[in-house]
Predict the structure.
Amino acid sequence: MNKITQIVENYLSSDLILMDISENTRGNSIRVVIDAERPVTLDDTITLSKKLRNDDELDFRFPDGFRLEVTTPGLDKGLESPFQFRKNIDRKIKITFSNGDGTQTTTGTLIDANDTCVSIKESGQEFSLRYDQINSAKVLISFN
């Protein structure tokens, strides 16, 4: 684990999860992606940003200042962790998975998720998938 990651994790509240961090020393920038099982608020990102801006170690590493972005995964980002599936229960998802015959893609409603598998309802039929079967999964956004 690098020093920037340690610094960021030190300031995360217990329910926030560090999903990604990227540092560009040439451009003096840090991009931090956080998520949680609950919706992440603007206050969450502001609070973390303020703490990182006031960190002495970051000031030392970037004596000329740095650009900081604290964000959450975008809508185009796939679901990866069990908690991300849990927070999207009752939403439509497009999921590509491996079965005994190869790869299959379907669209359905995520009806349950635990630490080992997810349950999908498609055309009135329910089925479960283990996480190791899932190749990709994205929430489908609809504007009704």
